[in-house]
Design brief:
Blueprint: H1 2-24, E1 28-30, E2 36-41, H2 44-61, H3 67-86, H4 99-128
Antiparallel strand pairs: 1-2
Transmembrane segments: 7-28, 40-61, 68-87, 99-120
Keywords: Membrane, Transmembrane, Transmembrane helix
């Protein structure tokens, strides 16, 4: 029971982080919220995704017995980004149509997929012994 609650907590954190990353993806250095530096994009959400999403997967993997449970934070993160990004609040598309969206998906999914693969490798090694 404790393991399921821990995995559920990681899933909720993945959902919240996906929403926040989606909201902060269009940030620019335009002088509105951040200092003005020639209107450059400031994809801080990508850095957050690169760091936090694999950590959530590794945390869930420490309580999981099956790969699907270990990958649950990644799957929730991905579905949240897709659903809110395409069908956002009020029907607005929240994903920006440039390189930042691709970088967000790649930065969150690739390291997390490596973490899921590491979990599966540890399980296979434990099964061989």
């Amino acid at each position: 029971m404790r393991d399921r609650l821990a995995i559920a907590a990681f899933v909720v954190q993945a959902f919240v982080l996906a929403v926040l990353e989606l909201f902060f993806l269009p940030l620019r250095l335009d002088g509105t919220l951040l200092p003005k530096v020639a209107d450059y994009p400031f994809p801080v959400a990508v850095l957050v995704a690169i760091i936090t999403t694999p950590l959530l997967v590794m945390g869930a993997a420490s309580y999981a017995r099956r790969p699907l449970a270990a990958a649950a934070p990644l799957l929730v993160w991905l579905v949240t980004l897709l659903v809110l990004g395409v069908f956002g609040p009020g029907g607005d598309a929240m994903l920006v149509n440039d390189w930042r969206t691709l970088l967000l998906f790649a930065g969150g999914m690739l390291p997390s997929a490596v973490a899921v693969g590491a979990f599966m490798g540890r399980q296979a090694r434990a099964g061989d012994q």
